[in-house]
Amino acid sequence: MFDVIRIPAFKDNYIWLLHKGAAAVVVDPGDARPVLEVLEREGLSLAAILVTHHHADHQGGVASLLAHFPAEVYGPATESITGITQPLHGGETICLAALDAEFQVLAVPGHTLGHLAYYGSGCLFCGDTLFGAGCGRLFEGTPAQMHGSLTRLAALPDQTAVYCAHEYTEANLRFALAVEPGNRHLQRRVAEVALARAKGRATVPFSMALEKATNPFLRCSEPEIVASAQGRMARAHDALQVFAVLREWKNVF
Ligand code: ZN
Ligand code: FE
User: What CATH number was assigned to the domain covering residues 3-252?
Assistant: First the structure.
């Protein structure tokens, strides 16, 4: 098993650095500088870069990392990714020899159309698809695509450690509580996250079990959530319609 180092970047991004021995793999390096600092500090060399989608805060550091290391670059074949050497569509299994680990590549359209997630060794790297108590904005995809993507992620094992790319959990929980105020698990998470953030601690990674218990976007069939959605739009009947209402509501919350 590999170790994972959290590298904060920009205002609220997390770049994930995986390493085993002296070899490292980095996920969504939006900025090269903090990654190079960690590689130097830990005495690691970069073997591969995984990119989930084309936004600059996820791939902006790729070019300068490649100037320092001859790394393989995995990413969505259908998006414009700097330096890509291993274009992926989802459905592949990639073998990262540097980590002695395999990852399943999952197509998770919604935030962008080519968005990928990487799942291996019980860890999910999901970029801007699933967040703590929330999900990514629909910049390119449809509600149906994002709902399908989140449903597939939620089917991963409960103990899956979810490594998303932003520290958005606290704000997402405010929305979640407005949607489902009677959820005891959610109330407890709100308190725990408030404490963690007050101490400057990260809320990522978190377990898929916790998401299934508290993330409204994974709970679109729960009666209290359906009722909240119908309060916004009476025609919200099935889980997909509820999801679409929640996603639009969150945009203006
Ligand atoms: Zn993004
Ligand atoms: Fe992002």
Answer: 3.60.15.10
Distance CA 135, CA 81 (A): 22
Whether 53 sits among the annotated catalytic residues: the reply is yes
At 181 the pLDDT is 98
58 carries an active-site annotation: yes
68: nearest Cα among 38, 99, 107: 38
Task: Please state the φ and ψ torsions of residue 48, each to the nearest 5 degrees.
Answer: -155, 155
Return the domain boundaries, the chain: 3-252
49 beta partners: 26, 73
**Residue 28 is among the residues annotated as catalytic for this protein:** no
Exactly one of 19, 28, 31, 55 is catalytic; name it.
55
| Choice among 53, 54, 115, 147 that is catalytic | 53
State the virtual CA torsion across 138, 143, 144, 145 in degrees, nearest 10: 10
Cis peptide bond prior to 205, omega within 30° of 0: yes
The answer to whether residue 57 is catalytic is: yes
pLDDT at position 217 is 98
Whole-model pTM: value is 0.98
Catalytic residue among 31, 57, 115, 147: 57
Tens-place pLDDT, residues 64-121: 999 999 999 999 999 999 999 999 999 999 999 999 999 999 999 999 999 999 999 9
